[in-house]
């Protein structure tokens, strides 16, 4: 398969093994900067220490990576296991850069706020971009939500960001974008905030660059069919599953893009000069010979 065919399959993206890169005209004036994205650490999964060891290995690697901060897109622990939060926090202390977490459907909000970060819905600015962190998952469903109050908060944040000529990236665990088999079929239903969110996205189209999500455990997967808005699901640092998405996209039974890599890992992100690039970093493995790290 040639590069151009992959690019064709991916629409506006160029996708190579382990790498996705997208043009973002609205980020033309942004100076390039790097950050890392982890998701779905699931500490305590299967009641063993595998996930904890992987998170520890990821921290060792993240300390060597050049990004200025880390985004964690939710499911910090598995199944709401409260004793895992101090374990997460102890490992997090080894990280030598800021990390911004959001809760996933495995994280009860009260435990997340007690052990990780509060308030959940919050914002920070970096390099001309406002990152909006949103809690949109609950324990009793794989579907997500964005409440009217959250829409109002997002609207206000986007307006303030635009007034400062900042670009915007929204981070929430559950994707807004509708999806069905061969995808998971988990998203924010129209009446639960999806319709309102896409209306908001239209209002702020000149500034809103992307939505970043976890939740699917399918590597890098996403869509770009609401204007220029990029909607990207990010891989789990614990485990990812093969849903044969490349085949389904090729046959037309699934839309959007998928980057062929499914090992447990995280993303090295570079944003700026009109482009977002996500490089998939499998834990403990070398990638493209450009980056390698060892952990135990
Ligand atoms: Fe998860």
Please outline what is shown here.
The protein is of the alpha/beta class. It has helices at residues 3-9, 50-64, 84-92, 109-115, 148-163, 194-203, 245-251; strands at residues 13-16, 19-23, 33-38, 70-72, 99-101, 122-126, 129-134, 167-172, 208-213, 220-226, 229-233, 257-259, 265-272, 275-282. It is globular and about 45 Å long.
| Number of strand elements | 14
Instruction: Write the CATH homologous superfamily.
Output: Metallo-dependent phosphatases
Strand order of the largest sheet: 1-2-14-13-3-4-5
Strand content: 25-35%
User: What is the count of helical runs?
Assistant: 7
Provide the CATH architecture: 4-Layer Sandwich
Mean pLDDT: 92
CATH class annotation: Alpha Beta
Overall helicity? 10-25%
């Amino acid at each position: 398969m040639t590069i151009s065919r992959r690019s064709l399959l991916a629409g506006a993206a160029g996708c190579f093994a382990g790498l996705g890169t997208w043009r973002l005209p609205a980020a033309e004036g942004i100076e390039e900067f790097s950050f890392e994205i982890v998701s779905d650490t699931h500490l305590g999964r299967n009641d063993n220490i595998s996930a904890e060891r992987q998170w520890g290995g990821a921290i060792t690697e993240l300390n060597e990576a050049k990004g200025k901060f880390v985004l964690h897109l939710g499911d910090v622990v598995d199944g709401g296991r409260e004793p895992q939060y101090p374990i997460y926090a102890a490992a997090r202390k080894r990280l030598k850069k800021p990390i911004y977490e959001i809760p996933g459907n495995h994280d009860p909000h009260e435990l997340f706020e007690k052990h990780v970060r509060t308030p959940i819905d919050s914002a920070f600015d970096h390099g001309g971009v406002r990152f909006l962190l949103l809690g949109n998952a609950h324990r009793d469903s794989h579907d997500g939500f964005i409440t009217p109050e959250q829409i109002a908060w997002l609207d206000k944040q986007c307006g303030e960001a635009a007034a400062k000529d900042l670009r915007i990236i929204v981070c929430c665990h559950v994707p807004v974008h509708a999806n069905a088999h061969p995808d998971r079929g988990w998203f924010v239903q129209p009446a639960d905030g999806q319709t309102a969110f896409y209306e908001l996205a239209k209002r702020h189209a000149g500034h809103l660059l992307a939505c970043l999500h976890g939740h699917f455990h399918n590597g890098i997967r996403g869509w770009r069919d609401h204007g220029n808005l990029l909607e990207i699901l990010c891989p789990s640092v614990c485990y990812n599953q093969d849903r044969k998405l490349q085949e389904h996209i090729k046959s037309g039974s699934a839309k959007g893009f998928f980057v062929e890599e499914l090992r447990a890992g995280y993303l090295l992100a570079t944003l700026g000069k009109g482009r977002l690039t996500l490089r998939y970093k499998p834990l403990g493995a070398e990638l493209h010979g450009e980056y390698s790290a060892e952990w135990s």
